[in-house]
Amino acid sequence: MTGSGRTRGWAARDIPDQEGRVAVVTGANSGIGFVTARELARRGARVVLACRSAERGGDAVRLLSDEVPDADVEFRRLDLGDLASVREFAEGFEQDLGGRLDLLVNNAGVMALPYRRTTDGFETQFGVNHLGHFALTGLLLPQLLATPGARVVTVSSMAHALANIDIGDLNSELRYRRWPAYARSKSANLLFVHELARRLADSGADVVAAAAHPGYAATNLQSTGPRMAGRRATEAFMAVGNRVIGQSADTGALPTLYAATAPGVRPDSFTGPRFLAWRGAPAPSPRAPWTRNDVAGERLWAASEVLTGVTYAALKG
């Protein structure tokens, strides 16, 4: 946030010029990820849409190019539930797009799914929402460190306040409940940002690690879990909620865009909608105290390194 902590009704029109900057946005084929990619491209950034589905990613590139005819955008496949795909994405980025990366937006996520496992055997919500982004950030860290003023923005949720991580059962093997598991993955997002910001500061890097959340934004995220579980009543209920109380994806993306581009954003800050952290213009957002616990952050980091095999060597020594 800026020194005053106020955003004064900050909107997409306030995004600074992004000409010459390179951005990667995960999950950019729909929802707030698509809006984030579109608005960065509208301001001149070169944007990589990192998505699991080639079909949906290609459709998103075409739609974005229709809306922003001079956009410099491309699709690259990234499956955050498959660490081999994460490594392939990072290697391809380094080879094809050079050493510059101004902005990494860790946006993609899944919510309240039936119990599933990723390709590597992790519980899907923890594996995709946290471990996939932990690995991606670590593998792209050399490019971020080489780019003055780079930022990493990780999208969490106010649902993080429903549950802290369980360091002894990160993959929910002892007991699985879809909403607590989602909340734990979102707490993991914030703990990751907290620990990354600390390590960046200790290494003297000027990369800013910050977090954001969209409040209640009407996207397809709410319907995916109930649809996968065959819970039609819940799916219908979520659809009504999206229409009645959800804000648009365009508005829901504003906290992410603020954290990604506004001057003076502080490391380990958490930006969300102003009105009850639910809707409205970006503002500082409350967060659970456990998401700033240094010991928990270190333990989650160590476990994530073991599980993913990504060690953030660029920050050592």
From TrEMBL:
It comes from Streptomyces alboflavus. NCBIfam families: PRK06197.1. It comes from the Bacteria. One of its GO terms (molecular function) is oxidoreductase activity. This is Short-chain dehydrogenase. Keywords: Oxidoreductase. The keyword Oxidoreductase applies. Belongs to the short-chain dehydrogenases/reductases (SDR) family.
